[in-house]
Each structure stands twice: as C-alpha cells, then as structure tokens.
Design a protein that fits this description.
This protein is of the alpha/beta class. Helix content is about 45%, strand content about 10%. An 8-stranded parallel sheet has the order 7-6-5-4-3-2-1-8.
C-alpha cells in the first residue's frame, strides 16, 4: 500500500520524532469562534477511509505491529484488583507472543504497549510492576468519567496521581461549558489542569458523543490545545457513542491547523469501541493522510482500548498460518 510505514514488518524500526511539548497559548476566541463543520462533507471523507486503499500481507503486519506500540492498555472497571492490573502490565511488556514475533523476523525488537491506563488506586501497583521499563502509567482523573465534581477536587486528584507516579493524566473536560459556549472558562480550567500535571503529560478527553455538534468538537479541541493539552482524546469509553472516524477527522484537522499556526505537535487518542484490527488500520490511515508519518508514533498517537490487542494478535497469526486460533489464546490482559 502506498503510504504504509515501510515495505515490510521491519517498519517498526522507524524513527521516533522528537518534538517540544505544547506550551499552550493565550486565549483567543478569534481562532476558533467562526468554525462551522459541514457534517455531510466530514462523513463522506470519513467513509472513504479504508475503502480507497487497502493494507495487505507484510504491509498489514507492519501496520499492526506499529498499532500495538500505540495502545494504551486499559482497565477501568469497578472490580479491578491489583492482580488484574499486574497481569495487564505484564501484557504491556510482552504484548505479542514470542513465537509470532520470531516468525515475523522481529524477535530482536523491543515491542511494548504505549502505556497502561488505570484508576488512581492502582497507579503504584502499575508503576511497581512496570519497574523501569519505560512504559508510562496513565491515570484517569478529574471525576472520570462524568467530571461532575468541584474544581478543587479535580486539581487535587491530578496532583495526587502525579505524586503516586502517573506520567500521563487523562482528564475529562466539563461538557456543560461546551454546551453553553463558555469557552473561556473551559480554557481556564484546562490550563489549571496542565499546571497541576507538572511534568506529567495532559490528555484531555472531550467526550465527543456528548458535545452535540461536530463544530463543538472542533472548538473544544482548539480550546484544549490552546490551554496546553499534550493530547486530545475522543472519549472515556463510557459514553453511548465513543470514537468514530468523523469525530477523529474533525479533531485531527484541528491538530493540523494548530501545528501550522504554532509549530507544536499535539497528540491524538481515539478511545472507546475500537476492538478490531481493521479499525486500528483505518485510524492509522487517517493519521497518515491527515497529519503525516510522524503522527504514527506513540509520542503522538494512542489507542484507548482493552480488547484491540487480542484481535491484532489473532490477525498476525492468521497472516503467518492462514488460520485463526481460538479467541481465548489472545487475552488483552
């Protein structure tokens, strides 16, 4: 496929671009206030992703291995236990079976998940289990998933999670501020979140399915980036509608325009409902076409997923053997 990361599975050796962290900028409603998104045009463009081109054979294996390195392996359940989190961390360290990597000719490469994402109570467990591996621990914060707690509590949650060892903080924005058009207050709040994060990276969850319009999604993306977000993210995974290609197209184009204006690269994370390898390929194609090769690295692109890894491993095995093994052989955690 034209535009694939490389010609074979060794694509994951590709460079890791360095970029300065987005410092944000002063609030300027003129930069986003007149945005109006044509839903029909967005949906037509989104529908063309994955149909005009296809990723086949060794190219597909390369793309799927790259996707693995961009997965935030996630467990955000009420019945999470330290044991479950430890198992997830071990899967993050060795996400693909060794025999598959050997058969693909990449057993010498260090392939890990992009991060492990947990609730605050399990940060220390995850940090200990990952011990110096370089895999960051991400923690959801600010009253995740609804965000309906006071600003003081939100800031306290962020600070406590950073102190516990989280290298990334996934916050939820106040959707009510979007729906009422209170953009300045949203900016001020996210700016405080960024300050509370310190050296930890800030990933802002828009909850796109609850923002009513694509125009609101674009404007919220701009406000979060202006306030210093390191990533913008679609969803908590708890909404009735989570990541979709139309939402992603709107958000990636906001990232592209922000980069053109400021020179700072902001990352993108689709989350919720992404469970199939084919979905991962479609999102990677979108990133490559809209933002370019550099945005296919975990520094700038993540999947928020809990079951995607299992399907990717099955597809890699099918690529090698021509058949699928049972689903239970490919647990996510």
């Amino acid at each position: 496929m034209k535009g694939a990361p490389e010609s074979n599975v060794h694509a994951i050796r590709a460079h890791r671009p360095g970029s300065d962290r987005n410092p944000g900028m002063g609030y300027d409603a003129d930069l986003f206030g007149r945005i109006r998104i044509n839903r029909s045009a967005v949906e037509r463009r989104a529908a063309s992703i994955g149909t005009r081109r296809s990723v086949k054979k060794a190219h597909q294996a390369a793309w799927l291995l790259k996707a693995v390195t961009c997965i935030d392996l996630t467990t955000l359940a009420g019945d999470d236990t330290p044991g479950r989190v430890r198992r997830l961390c071990q899967k993050a360290l060795r996400p693909i079976r060794g025999d598959i990597l050997q058969a693909l000719g990449v057993a010498d490469l260090r392939i890990t998940a992009g991060a492990v994402c947990v609730y605050h109570n399990f940060i220390e467990v995850a940090v200990e289990e990952l011990g110096g591996s370089g895999i960051p621990v991400a923690a959801v914060s600010t009253g995740f998933p609804a965000g309906q707690i006071s600003l003081e509590l939100k800031l306290a949650q962020i600070r406590e999670s950073v102190q516990a060892g989280a290298a990334e903080i996934d916050i939820v924005i106040s959707r009510g501020k979007v729906l009422t058009g209170d953009w300045r207050k949203l900016y001020e709040e996210v700016k405080l979140f960024r300050e509370a994060c310190g050296e930890a990276h800030l990933k802002t969850i828009l909850a796109t399915g609850e923002l009513a319009t694509l125009s609101n999604v674009a404007k919220a993306s701009w406000v979060c980036m202006m306030a210093g977000a390191d990533f913008i993210k679609t969803s908590t995974g708890k909404e009735s509608v989570n990541a979709t290609l139309p939402y992603s197209l709107v958000m990636t184009r906001a990232i592209r325009d922000y980069f053109a204006l400021t020179g700072y690269a902001v990352g993108y994370k689709p989350a919720g409902g992404i469970s199939k390898a084919k979905d991962a390929l479609n999102y990677q194609v979108l990133m490559k076409e809209e933002l370019g090769r550099s945005w296919l690295e975990p520094q700038l692109f993540r999947f928020g997923a809990s079951s995607l890894l299992g399907d990717i491993e099955r597809q890699l095995e099918h690529h090698l053997t021509g058949s699928y093994s049972a689903q239970f052989r490919h647990p996510a955690g």
